[in-house]
Amino acid sequence: MKKLTTAVILFIFTQTLWSQNLWTEQDRAFLLKGLRNTGSELLAQIRELDEDQMSFKPDSNSWSIAEIVEHLGVYEEHLYWDLLYQQHSPERPELVEKVKGNDEALLAYATDPAKGTAPWLAEPIGRFEEKEALIRYFTRFRDEVISLIEGTDKDFRL
């Protein structure tokens, strides 16, 4: 899920130029479908888990499911604020050539099952004591991101 979020963020900024419109309705549809599907899949998987299952850690070097969902929620919030800020920022067409053609590499990275290291900002710190609060946090920002993407005319590739 972390990697999908990364892919979604990077996809917005790096698709190869196919037309004069860098950000197309196909891009928007692809992104929205991915956000909705992965959010629904995540929630379906964790809804049936009890608190013990959510907090279980197979070893001291692994995160629990609750910690993973907290991490994803933090990234959703970060993405929301980033996209909101971008709504009011000047476009940067000079950066397009630097990232042109990187979609395949970025999507491959995002779907690689190898574990990465989270930046300190996105490390789980036990912000939520109850599963439902954690679900509300993730869902709130996922829904906000979807609403921003649906309702904007901003070219996210510039």
List keywords for this structure.
globular, mainly alpha, 158 residues, 7 helices
Task: Kindly describe this structure.
This protein is an all-alpha fold. The protein has one domain (2-151). Helix content is 62%, strand content 0%. The protein is built from seven helices and no strands. It has helices at residues 2-14, 25-47, 51-55, 65-87, 96-99, 103-111, 131-151. The two termini are 25 Å apart.
Residues in helices, as a percent range: 55-70%
Report on the biggest sheet: none
Order of helices and strands: HHHHHHH
Question: Regarding quaternary structure, how should these chains be classified?
Answer: single chain
Secondary structure tally, helices: 7
% residues in beta strands: under 5%
Please provide the count of β strands.
0
Quick description:
This protein is mainly alpha-helical. The chain is 62% helix and 0% strand. The protein has one domain (2-151).
